[in-house]
Design brief:
CATH topology of the largest domain: Beta-Lactamase
Radius of gyration: 56 Å
Helix content: 40-55%
Shape: rod-shaped
Order of helices and strands: HHEEHEEEHEEHEEEHHEEHHH
Strand content: 15-25%
CATH superfamily of the largest domain: PAS domain
């Protein structure tokens, strides 16, 4: 099946040419939008990294403060023996409870302060008249005993307070380096959230402070997950596992694209929080995308108006003169040499006017030449008619011989003189020889061939 041939008119070609001149502007707008979006993302990543470093520094300061408080607790002389002569590790003492309760009042950031013996039972705490619970199963206690150093725990709900908290712990070592007791300080996550509010973030950014397991401890502003829940974003889950500083462009828990900057608050894994600051990707590139759509809309309108103007002006300035030239050319081909392309005084003397003038001069020249030829032909025909009359009156005919094909052509008078039928008589040399008398045939043939060779009549 033959492919359908689409005919493109001159006016359509003109519109396509105009649109082709505007197409690079679309490409430039898209390139500029992509470049600006990349630059905006790069700037946003830098801002997020700075905000994450501030938040990590804030959490590290929180841990250092807890270390200092716990150091003061385990090294307080009055806690080593009370008025009854009992050591702290030997049972609950009034001085211990009173001292920790006083510290609790001075530092509202802490939900509870306490000391745990090596058997895992609480010896005293900062909450008056509270039950001393078994704490040997808490991760912070086990880590402090195992590492014999300051540690940061994980998200828990306090047994004595019922408050969600994150706990710091510091062991007291004897002269042999063995753990005697473990002091702990539980940070109230509600108070911790208040300190997070003071951290400056880029507009629209969100802050999440997590423990080493990725459980949310505090956030700003309200986050999709609640305190005590693990991070839902696959990006953040992988980052928490590595506990390394980095940036990423990936989905949150709901699948929305966000920019991420994250880092641990300390190089020591046992003391570190994990801080993440994120920003909606659309918020970063939204302005660039809106500007791109605006530019594309303006360019589309410009392309439409330019195409419409080219269509309208092209019809008058190009298409109509071209059609006049083509129509005049067609008439010339049909033999109408009297056709002329109209040229008015209002024409601007441009290319089409000069083409029309040249065409008109050519047509006029052809018409004059044709007139001369027709006149000469008429004269020749008149002469031929007179010659034919003279031949007919004088009984004179003439013939022609094609020496290659030996075909002959006779005038009508020859047929009449010889008395043969023009329709049935063969037009070749041998047929003519048959009309010559046999006695003269050889002599005629010899004379004829000699005349042909010599070019004589």
């Amino acid at each position: 099946m033959a492919a359908m041939k689409v005919q493109i008119t001159l006016r359509t070609r003109l519109v396509i040419l105009v649109l082709a001149a505007i197409v690079p502007l679309f490409g430039l707008s898209i390139f500029k939008a992509v470049y600006n979006a990349d630059a905006a993302v790069e700037r946003a990543m830098t801002d997020l990294q700075f905000a994450a470093s501030l938040a990590a520094s804030n959490q590290q300061q929180l841990a250092e403060t807890a270390r200092q408080v716990l150091t003061a607790v385990i090294h307080a002389p009055e806690l080593l023996s009370d008025k009854d002569g009992k050591t702290v590790k030997g049972g609950r003492g009034g001085r211990c409870d009173a001292y920790l309760a006083q510290l609790n009042r001075l530092f509202p950031l802490y939900a509870n302060l306490g000391i745990v013996g090596m058997d895992g039972r609480a010896l005293c705490n900062g909450i008056p008249n509270s039950t001393l619970n078994y704490l040997g199963d808490r991760a912070y206690f086990r880590d402090a005993v195992a590492h014999r150093d300051f540690v940061t725990g994980e998200y828990i709900v306090g047994r004595a307070t019922g408050i969600p908290s994150i706990t710091f712990a510091l062991p007291l070592l004897d002269r042999e380096g063995q753990v005697v007791v473990v002091a702990y300080a539980s940070v109230d996550l509600g108070e911790m959230a208040k300190t997070a509010l003071s951290i400056h973030l880029p507009p629209g950014a969100a802050l999440g402070i997590h423990d080493r397991n990725g459980v949310l401890l505090a956030g700003k502003p309200a986050l999709p997950i609640r305190v005590g829940q693990k991070a839902a974003s696959p990006v953040l889950r992988e980052a928490v596992k590595a506990l390394k500083t980095g940036t990423a462009d990936g989905p949150d828990g709901a699948g929305n694209r966000r920019l991420w900057a994250y880092m641990p608050s300390s190089a020591n894994v046992g003391e570190a929080f994990f801080v993440a600051v994120s920003l909606d990707h659309n918020l970063v590139v939204g302005a660039t995308q809106r500007q791109l759509w605006l530019e594309l809309g303006v360019l589309s309108l410009l392309a439409f108006l330019s195409g419409l103007l080219a269509w309208m002006m092209g019809g008058r300035a190009i298409v109509i003169p071209t059609r006049n030239i083509l129509e005049a050319t067609r008439r010339i081909q049909d033999g109408r040499l009297d056709v002329r392309i109209p040229v008015t005084s209002s024409d601007d003397g441009g290319e089409f006017s000069r083409i029309a003038e040249g065409f008109n001069r050519m047509a006029e020249s052809l018409q004059k030449h044709r007139g001369a030829l027709e006149s000469e032909l008429a004269n020749s025909e008149a002469i031929q008619r007179k010659l034919q009359d003279a031949q007919r009156l004088g009984r004179i005919g003439y013939w022609q011989l094609d020496v290659r094909s030996e075909e002959t052509w006779w005038s009508d008078e020859v047929y009449d003189v010889l008395g043969v039928d023009k329709a049935s008589f063969p037009t070749n040399r041998e047929a003519f020889l048959q009309l010559v008398h046999p006695a003269d045939r050889q002599d005629f043939k010899a004379r004829r061939d000699a005349a042909v060779a010599a070019g004589l009549p």
